[in-house]
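new request in #modeling-help
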Amino acid sequence: MKVRLLTGLLSLLMPALVLAGEYNLTVDRVEIDTGDFVKEGIGYNGKSPGPVLRFKEGEDVRINVTNNLDEATSIHWHGLILPFEQDGVPGISFPGIQPGETFTYEFPITQAGTYWFHSHSGFQEPDGAFGAIVIEPEGREPFRYDREYVIQLTDKHPHSGDRIMRNLKMMPDYYNRQQQTVGEFFSDASSNGLMDTIQDRMAWGDMRMMKADVEDVQGFTGMINGKGPAQNWTGLFEPGERVRLRFINSSAMTYFDVRIPGLDMTVVQADGNNIQPVNVDEFRIGVAETYDVIVHPKDERAHTIFAESMGRSGYARATLAPEEGMEAPVPPMRDPARLTMADMAGMPGMDHGDMDHSSMENMDDSNMQDMDHGSMDGMDHSKMGGDDGQPSDPFYAKGSGIMPVAANDGKFLSYADLKAQKPLYEEREPTREIELRLTGNMERYTWSINGVKYEDADPIRLQYGERVRFKFVNETMMTHPMHLHGMWSILDVGAGKWNPIKHTVSVQPGTTVYMETEVDAPGQWAFHCHLSYHAAAGMFRKVIVEGGPDSTQAKTDVAIEEGGDA
Amino acid sequence: MSRIRSLITVSLLGSMVFPTAVAAQEMIADTTSRKQALTSWGVQFEELEYRYSDDDEELGVWSADFFYGTDDLKVRWLTKGEYAIEEQAYEGLENQLVAQVPISDFFDAKAGVRFDTPEGPDRTYAVLGITGLAPQWFEIDANLYVNEEGDTSAGLDAEYELLLTNYWILSAAVDATVAFSEDREIGVGKGLVSTETGLRLSYDLVDRAFSPYIGVVHERKYGDTADIAEAESGSTEDWFAVIGARIAF
């Protein structure tokens, strides 16, 4: 206590010597103007998105959060490694921040990269309560750039989060305006034959599943840094500069396919961690993920940053330009995606396809050779794994209807391309495997893990010091971005010690994905699907890490809860 | 409880004594609403319409339901009415209050009571039914009714929506009623009692909250029920032109 007082005094006396960065955030009701509609929402320091918080690796931060709402709030520092009481999840980390209260977060910054923060209370995040975090590294970064921009994406909807959840519970297809129509029946019949089309409709009707069920919540306006497509957020550059774009997907529900026509993108970071650079034409950013890319515009002309939603129901758009006011053409959106039977392969009772990614050695060997040469150009993985010249990504069910394809038929980033620049952990055998089946019922709009909603679930108990291998089996027809708080998710792309380190792992329909976690953070943590309405419907777990250096047995005894796993 | 409290005290003391050590924080239990069953509610007017019959009868008709509850248990109030505009009288007025629980992936069971309070004799029924989504997207609602006099009957409603576009929807609905015993006082004969078949073309004007429609409805009485109606010089078959709106909020 005394030590803290003393440093407090010192910092008052000698502001230049302050080691701890102090930051102030207010949580406010704000107005959000998308260009399509104006909507009341929640923001930070009077704006949504909130400010970009710039931290330095190695500093201790103090963040004073004042709640000006008439309801409780919280801030979760998405992707940051910190003590669990600072993680900002009401009911798990702390009780939350009551109206009128100021809560001070204090934690050391032990990492670098691009992250974000958001409310973990109710539907405040879909209502606008989020902002970006940029952490400057202590050392040199293994890539160069001349300037940088945060590109924070969101899917702003005219309805409030509460209203959306209620509508989805009342009518699960409330927001789906891409359903198959009579017109589509006839056009399918003319291209695929009448009988095949009837059989196809009958097969889906028999399951009571919709091929069009790619995006639950349509009708949003895609936004970048708080600007809708018509408002066109613009970042300036001098021709010849290398520009680092820190993409953050802060959407409630929407995956975006991002491209910048006319520019190659070099992906250098995923979820804040450096990766071995990959040149791509396009990438899909899952909800809550971040990707840092470097572009090198050489000409005196504008470029459009075009982010189409995965289901093609909306888009975000921004511009990189040498001068304010310049713009480039905005491409049309591609046709809406349709799920296929391959995406249903994970449904119980369906034929299980061979979707096991643990056996991806072949593909990865060929990748690794390219990667080891550090060659940043001419790597074309788009054909890898494709038997018949069809684009193929091992992280999608073979023949999936949402398999990403680059608009220019070039390289589309795959998880399989992500290789850690510098492994964070020694490679070792996992101590055990925990299977998490991602489950749900679209017609009831219920979402769960292993068929159990959070309200009925026991916590997942992990032991400090173990390395757990999580096996995600997606038995639904939707993509789920799974986010474990407090500890890194080492995504198994088959690259051994070069497996990338992430905080959010997308699991595509009909696939099985593995990730490993070094259980190195005592306390209790949230673990959930980051689609807001899936998490709220029950696709959520509490993880308790038992033991650890700072813990006593007494500590774990305090929280009396039934044992057992998910 | 006292043990827990003393442990907390110990850990609090500990953190005061050793301020530099990471305080042994208690791990709180999740009592937030996230850990509670999600409660939802909704209001839907499947039909809210004006009907004009082939023999110039005018009716105001609604069929609506209000629900409140969780995934595991919902309370639902279903209300249906047919109001004869010229006579200023209810030809039919039916209210049901049911509890609804899931019994399979796509079907719920319902149980409750139904009150029929049109002009004329009232009836109270116990209701047992299932409702849900059948393969090929047929919405099914099937109910068994027993009234206070022991008369039993059954109703089956089926509906199918054909998407002409994602906003223009053609919906076909069939309601059929079967009585297992006669209830002459309310004009019900044994056997197939009546059917109501409707075809409505709607347009989603405001989200799915307000969808105006036009359509045709065909009502027909059968067998003994038709005989009773004829004996009372009522009609046994009617065609209606309808105009109305589907409402959901």
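bot summary: The first strand of chain B starts at residue 40 and ends at 53.
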